[in-house]
């Protein structure tokens, strides 16, 4: 049996501070109209060694509410562990999209949201749905994806389509 001797300062406080700093980097959609409009996910990607060429568009909550007719029940496509997905049409481009509204009381926090935005913005593959943009307005967290009209992955895996 071996013994491990620990000495020095605890890293718990430093790690908590680092996590808090990371979570504070998610800009709200309204922040883009403030003094520093360049503070966004693109900046974080370049800090982390990414190319900084993220095509994710920043939407306001108002834009996405309009696209989904105020998140009406007849626009609801499905519901999962992290929130609901609605079908919508963007007024600016007339594009049909799927809008994932994350549950504000759910398990996915700011950090997971930021990671999802960064990863899906940088990854492009024929088998992955493309992320068009996101909204981080107040406590609202939404992801905007291209709309795939042929049902869900679950439907295809279980042979329901």
UniProtKB/TrEMBL annotation:
Protein kinase domain location: 71-161
Subcellular location(s) of the protein: Cell membrane
Pfam families assigned: PK_Tyr_Ser-Thr
Ranges of biased composition (kind: Basic residues): 9-19
Superkingdom, natural source: Eukaryota
An example molecular function term from Gene Ontology annotations: ATP binding
Keyword terms: ATP-binding, Kinase, Lipoprotein, Membrane, Nucleotide-binding, Serine/threonine-protein kinase, Transferase
Topology term for the membrane: Lipid-anchor
Region (Disordered): 1-37
Gene3D superfamilies in the cross-refs: Phosphorylase Kinase, domain 1
Annotated positions binding ATP: 100
Gene Ontology cellular component annotations, sorted alphabetically: plasma membrane
PANTHER family documented for this protein: OS07G0668900 PROTEIN, OS07G0695300 PROTEIN
Protein name: Protein kinase domain-containing protein
Taxonomic source organism: Ilex paraguariensis (yerba mate)
């Amino acid at each position: 049996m071996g013994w491990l001797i620990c000495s020095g300062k605890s890293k718990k406080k430093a790690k908590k501070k680092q996590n808090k700093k990371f979570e504070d980097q998610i800009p709200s959609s309204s922040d883009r109209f403030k003094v520093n409009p360049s503070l966004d996910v693109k900046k974080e990607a370049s800090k982390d060694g990414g190319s900084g060429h993220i095509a994710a568009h920043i939407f306001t909550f108002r834009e996405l509410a309009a696209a989904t007719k105020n998140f009406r029940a007849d626009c609801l496509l499905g519901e999962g562990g992290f929130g609901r997905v609605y079908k919508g049409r963007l007024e600016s481009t007339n594009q049909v999209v799927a809008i994932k509204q994350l549950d504000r009381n759910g398990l996915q926090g700011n950090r997971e949201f930021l990671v999802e935005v960064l990863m899906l913005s940088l990854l492009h593959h024929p088998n992955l749905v493309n992320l068009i943009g996101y909204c981080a307005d107040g406590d609202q967290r939404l992801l905007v994806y291209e709309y795939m009209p042929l049902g869900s992955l679950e439907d295809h895996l279980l042979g329901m389509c």
